[in-house]
Amino acid sequence: MPDTSNLRDAALPQTFAIKSFGCQMNVYDGERMAELLTAQGMTASDGRAEADLIVLNTCHIRERAVDKVYSDIGRLRREDGTVPLIAVAGCVAQAEGEEIMARAPSVKMVVGPQAYHRLPAMIAEAAAGRRATDTDMPAETKFDALPRRRKSGPTAFLTVQEGCDKFCTYCVVPYTRGTEISRPFAALVDEAKALVEAGAREITLLGQNVNAWSGEDDKGRKVGLAGLAETLADIPALARIRYTTSHPTDMDDALIAAHADNPKLMPFLHLPVQSGSDRILKAMNRSHTVESYRKLLDRVRAVRPDIALSGDFIVGFPGETEDDFAQTLRLIDAVGYAQAFSFKYSPRPGTPAATMDGQIAADVMDRRLQDLQAAINRDQHAFNLASMGRRCSVLIERKGKLRGQMLGKSAWLQSVHLMTDATIGDLLEVEITLAGPNSLGGTELARVAV
Fold first, then answer.
1. pLDDT for 201-256, tens place per residue?
2. 445: part of which helix (H) or strand (E)?
3. Which domain holds residue 412?
4. How far apart are CA 32 and CA 46, in angstroms?
5. 10-34 confidence digits (pLDDT tens)
6. Distance (Å, rounded) from C-alpha 206 to C-alpha 400?
7. How many domains does the chain have?
8. pLDDT in tens, 80-103
9. Does the residue 76 lie in any domain?
10. What residues form DSSP beta bridges with 87?
11. Which residues of 352-369 are buried (b: 16+ CB within 10 A; e: fewer)?
């Protein structure tokens, strides 16, 4: 492919739009692609209808993800019959690249999640009439090739780790994102500082197994995620640090202790369990049991009693009985999650679970999901109600729906609405005066210096 450093040519697209699906890491990748294309001289379009280039940044986790990609491609045809330059990126591109090129002639580029730094050269190829596919996995060179962060809102994502070595039987991540790779310590500190200089007050560290991150600090010492968070806490204008998604196996003593010792590390932990049945956990190839998971949560709560716990649950995994599902409900009752994500099992081609015996009927999965979500919603509302009267910090993220209303997040990742003349990025001390199932209301008490 040709090396192109400037896309300002009459034959090349001048405007672009990126639509990202799925997880926070896809949001991060979408932001980085936008920065890359902007650095090449292109301009972000206000709407997809007007853009010369459309990038569909896809997710492969849920069922029918591929069908949704083709549906989206079809909707990009304009009223005059023309289509923009279309690129399919992300995990569906990685898994289905050749098939997409065969089935969708309007797609000119297919690029995997480890190769999107090569987009400028691929665009030049496509503009010259040659379709391009790149699904290589050179994990580090992607980050080395991306421009320095120059723009950020009050909250920002920072990918520190990619890939997964766990091979859960339902999951495609090891096949679409590759094996576990930790980005270098110095590169992460540099990117975090750039984000803060660009306006970020809160950074969420991202990874498929983010707590598996490891590296050497600036003194040559081996450190894990706790050590990285400790260094980032020294950035003066950075007020908050979060991380997601964690795996129970990689939750080490240092990271648990950091929830007590690092004041900038927020009291929130997303730690997926997936099922409350040891039999199903074994079939999923999860490396923990219900007992080991609960003991881990007890250790975290011992050092940070007010921590908000979040998790992931899959209902209807092959072979799940009514008793297995009842055990999951009992686990939810015992833990008391502040929030959680729940999904019906969906078979992903190429994963071991897709061909397992005991596939669960759709109506059974629907009923179980409704029951599980009712339990989660009950506990989330209870957690919010327990916040009534609490004084806490709130980071303002955007305007609310009412005149003079702003919306921010508490340290426990709750949405908080309040009337204030504060601006986006301000950190306020707030008293919580209202508590609903999904959000809180508060009254400003003071501004907090960062």
1. 999 999 999 999 999 999 999 999 999 999 999 999 999 999 999 999 999 999 99
2. strand 439-448
3. 391-448
4. 18
5. 478 899 999 988 788 889 999 999 9
6. 27
7. 3
8. 778 889 999 988 888 888 888 988
9. yes
10. 55, 109
11. bbbeeeebbeeeebeebb
